[in-house]
Amino acid sequence: MVLFLGISGITFSQNHITNLLDSLDKVEDDKSRVLIYKEIGRSYYHLDLDSAIHYAKTGLNLAEKIGFTKGIADLNNDLGIFYREIGLNTISVDHYFASLNVKKTTGDKKGIASTQNNLGVVYNDMDQPDQALEYFYESIEYYKEINDSIQIATLSMNIGNAYLRKKMNEEALEWYFKAKPIFEYYGDTGDLHFITQNIGEYYENREMFDSARHYYEGAIQLGIAASNDDWYSRSCIYLGRLLLNYGYEQQAFKYLFDAFVLGNSLKSLKTLRDASLLLRDYYESTGYLDSALYYSKLYKNYSDSLNFNELSRQLGIEETRYEYQIFLQESENQVAKQRLLRNIMILFFALALLLVIYIYRSYRNKQKANRLLAEMDELKSRLFSNISHEFRTPLTLILGPLEEMMELEKEKKPSKKTVQMMQRNANRLLDLVNQMLDLSKVDAGSMKLELEDEEIVKAIRVIILSFASLAEKKKIHFSHQLPGEKLVTWFDPDKLEKILNNLISNAFKFTPEGGAVKVEVSLDQTDKGSSRPDRLLITVEDSGKGIPDDQLVKIFDRFHQVEEAKEFESMGTGIGLALTKELVEVMHGKISVESQVGKGTKFSVELPVGKEHLKESEYVIRESDATMGERKSRETGTMVEEEKCIEEVYSDEESALGHPIVLTVEDHEEIRTHIREHLEDNFRVLEAANGKTGLEIAIENVPDLIITDLMMPEMDGIELCKRLKTDERTSHIPVIMLTAKASIEERLEGLETGADAYVTKPFHIKELRLRVSKLIEQRNKLRERFSREITIEPKDIAVTSTDERFLQKVMACVEEHMGDSDFDVGQFQDEMSMSRMQLFRKLKALTNHTPSEFIRNLRLKRAAKLIEKEFGNVAEVCYEVGFNNLSYFAKCFKELFKVLPSEYGKTKG
Question: Which of 213, 249, 547, 682 is the 20 to 30 A CA-CA neighbour of 377?
Answer without folding.
Answer: 547
